[in-house]
Amino acid sequence: MWRRTMAGSEKARRIAAGVLLATPVLALLWPPLYARDGPNLLGLPYFYWYQFAWAVLSVAVMAVSHRLLRRHPHDRFDDER
């Protein structure tokens, strides 16, 4: 059976994207990081602004991961083909 092997740089990009995508999940699944009262930010308890910050950071992480995993890095949109 024919099997496609990944180039070293493609494999490294996949690993980097996986680590990036796992970071927000692990940060939100580990309660000792955010299960406390302070500090407050603009009157919001730490729990709420920590969760909101990760929601925004997750969007950035997904964008970077998408760029790492694109097959043709010079193409602007892969879906137009």
TrEMBL record:
Annotated Pfam families: DUF3311
Residue ranges spanning the membrane: these are 51-69
Please provide the record's keywords in A-Z order.
Membrane, Transmembrane, Transmembrane helix
UniProt name for this protein: DUF3311 domain-containing protein
- Give the organism, scientific name: Micromonospora endolithica
